[in-house]
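Exercise (ungraded).
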Amino acid sequence: MSLDGYVAGPNQSVEHPLGEGGMALHEWVFGLRAWREPHGMEGGEDNASTPVVERNLAGVGAYVMGRNMFGGRGPWAENPWDGWWGDDPPFHLPVYVVTHHAREPLEMQGGTTFYFVTDGVESALAQARETAGDRDVFVSGGASVARQCFANGLIDEATLSVVPILLHGGERLLDGLDGAQLQMECVEAVAAPGVTHLTYRRSG
Amino acid sequence: MSLDGYVAGPNQSVEHPLGEGGMALHEWVFGLRAWREPHGMEGGEDNASTPVVERNLAGVGAYVMGRNMFGGRGPWAENPWDGWWGDDPPFHLPVYVVTHHAREPLEMQGGTTFYFVTDGVESALAQARETAGDRDVFVSGGASVARQCFANGLIDEATLSVVPILLHGGERLLDGLDGAQLQMECVEAVAAPGVTHLTYRRSG
């Protein structure tokens, strides 16, 4: 999230899937060994972000994400591509994609299978929970899916990674929540190079 | 600041100088000994917020604030009151108030004198700096004065105290900055009861 609250910049498009300037929100992660390894890249550094990233990924048994984060809008029949993530996506686990467009499961290399869920976020979460068993379900985003989860009190723990840039426009994570409150408290705050990680846990 | 970026709630008025719901942004501070003592109140507790509050107040030689934070709109001739802060304001130092309405300096009990500056934020800062000498100038707010300082690169260090509530409307600190960047990095993040303090320092 930028300091002015955006998780994607303005004018999202195929050229700018995170909106103009939005990639800068993720720059802190690209050089981290803990990020490079699951992406099949060698090298990288360890810093104060490392334990946060490792902890958040360690207990995950399934992912939930929105269609934009998978690969953009359907319908897949007209636009049957396999998403932004390449042949060997970095998830290595089942990923439940919330979309309006039905599609057969898409099995990729390295253990990632995308399942396309057409009956909403809560259904995707329920399927992911069943797959994950005792492990955690990680809601990757985008903003819309995360917002729906917050609005419905479905998040037990959230890490907001705040980057000290201003995007001045785009998509805000916590707008349009219609008077809802999160009922969460900050249990950890970590200042790391280029980012600050705020971890909130449900308090109610 | 609320998690959705507001430093005041909607519908600011004499009854709700911080807007509806805005007082909740400050609840973390009212029970703190480090806040109660300069306000002439006994007791209070110490927690993880204490060193942040004490450090931010320790080196201060003068304050700058907007007219709303002093006491609302002028003209003072028609509305000659002495502000929100009572006979013995908690500043105990010279305070430079940015306003369109000239007024003689207002000397209060306990060392606080309000000076009314009609030629803008930069002039108020310059006067405060001259008064403060080697000590710091503390820009108290409100949002408009702070935003002007950020927009013009006049902030060396800023502590954002983020409260895990959503206000869903009101005044945002970092909106309308017209493409500016802060050029600051987070040097400290402290999770405390009811609030998280993020201290940014100029990096450029």
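Further reading is listed at the end of the chapter. For now, observe: Residues 60-134 of chain A form one domain. Strands of chain A lie at 6-8, 60-66, 94-98, 106-107, 113-117, 136-141, 157-162, 171-172, 184-192, 195-202.
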